[in-house]
Amino acid sequence: MQPSLFISHGSPMLALTPGPAHDFLRELGKTLSPKAIVVVSAHWASERLLVSTSAHPETIHDFGGFPRELFECQYPSPGEPELALRLARKLNAVPVERGLDHGAWVPLSLMFPAADIPVVSLSLPVTWSSQALVELGEKLAALREEEGVLVVGSGSLTHNLAEMQAQEAPMPAWVGEFADWIHEKLTANERAALLEWESAPQARRNHPTPEHFQPLLVALGAGGEARRLHHSVEHGVLAMDVYAFA
Fold first, then answer.
1. Measured distance CA(234)–CA(158) in Å, rounded
2. How many angstroms separate the CA atoms of 210 and 125, rounded?
3. Taking Cα atoms as reference points, which of 150, 154, 135, 133 lies closest to residue 80?
4. Residue 238, CB-side half-sphere exposure with 13 Å CA sphere
């Protein structure tokens, strides 16, 4: 059985820049052997739930101002149209053709560099309640339990780009306060508190908008007991935590 994962994907430069989170994801992939991957990325926001049926999803470079080398990165993983259409029926999602945004391909390119595992993208319905996002994850749990599918929510445990600092800057107290609260509630399985995460200490400062936290709720619903696999901080304010829900 594959776990459900929440991965903090940070800056797109994670794909190219060695560091604690980059190195961790390279090692994490060696411990997993999924038959397919279903990924919910913060960078495919929608009102209705959408699912990509693309057989050959393109690598989307949905960013600007980065080195040419990053724009030359390709992640040619296959899609899985049959699985995507089953999900569309099961979840009442709209099937569309879409590639992999950087919230999907950046962490997956580190974990599974051979790009030989089929990937299906689900959109992030950002207008849904926290409860509805957890319930979406619960509907994905059977894929893990019965079909060997890895469920990935890709976002960021903290995400205030307006306060980004130098790459190696120390973590401000307001970032740690929020990250510690989330860790405490996850490991204690206090789901009622997590559904009200926007009331957590410093929640608004760490997430001026919610889309980078919401994939965690989907991953939480798709799995069981939470375990933090990795913690590091980039640019002072981007907590690069990775959680498994097994």
1. 10
2. 11
3. 150
4. 23
State the residue for tokens 């890709």: 154
Helix (H, G, I), strand (E, B) or coil at 46: strand
Q: Residue 66 gets which letter from DSSP?
A: S
How confident is the model over 164-191, as pLDDT tens digits?
898 888 999 999 999 999 999 999 999 9
Contact 110, 22 (CB under 8 A): yes
Q: What are phi and psi of 54, to 5 degrees?
A: -60, 130
Prediction pTM value: 0.97
Cα–Cα distance for residue pair 78/15, rounded to 1 Å: 19
Q: Which neighbouring-strand residues pair with 215? A: none
Q: Residue 17's pLDDT band (boundaries 50, 70, 90)?
A: very high
> In the predicted model, what is the mean pLDDT of the chain?
97
Write out the two tokens for 166: 């130098």
* 167 Cβ contact partners less than 8 Å away, ≥ 6 residues apart: 19, 234, 235
The model's pLDDT over 74-89, given as tens digits with 9 standing for 90+, comes to 999 999 999 999 999 9
Closest by CA to 186, choosing from 219, 209, 155, is 219
Number of continuous H segments (helices) and E segments (strands) in the chain:
9, 10
pLDDT over 90, % of the chain: 97
Q: Which of 70, 83, 72 shows the shortest CA–CA distance to 119? A: 83
Tell me the residue type at 227: R
Q: Could you say which DSSP state residue 72 is in? A: T
Q: Which two tokens stand for residue 243?
A: 């959680």
Rounded CA separation 231/244 (Å): 12
